[in-house]
Amino acid sequence: MEKNVRKMKQINKVLVANRGEIAVRIFETLHQMGITTVAIYSANDANALHVRQADERYLLQGKSLAETYLDMGQIIRLAQACEADAIHPGYGFLAENADFAQAVDDAGIIFIGPSAGAIRSMGNKTLAREIAADLGIPVIEGATGDAAMLLKGARRIGYPVIVKATGGGGGKGMKIVHKDDELEEVIESATREAQAYFGNPEVYIEKYLPSPRHIEVQLLADCKGQVVSLFERECSVQRRHQKIIEEAPAPNLGVSLRKNLTESARILAKHIGYCSAGTVEFLVQGKQFYFLEMNTRIQVEHPVTEMVTGIDIVKEQMHIATGKPLPFSQGDIQLNGHAIEARVYAEDPANEFAPSPGKVLLHQIPKGKGLRIDSSLDGSGEISAMFDPMVSKVIFHSSRRETARKMIIHHLKDYVLLGIKTNISYLIKLLNSSQFTNGKIDTTIVTRVAHTGSAKTKTCHHTKDLLSLAFLFANPGRKENANVTWRQLGFWRLLPAANLKVNGQEVNTRFQYHTPDHLSIDCNGEQINYRLLERGENHMRIDVDGSIQTMYYLPVNGEVIFQHEGVTSTVSPVRYLGKDTLRELNENPVLEGETIVTSPMHGTIVKVVAKKGDHINKGDTLLILESMKMENKIISSAKAYVTRVDVKEGDMVADNTPLVYLSNKLT
Question: What local confidence, expressed as pLDDT, does residue 628 receive?
Answer without folding.
Answer: 62
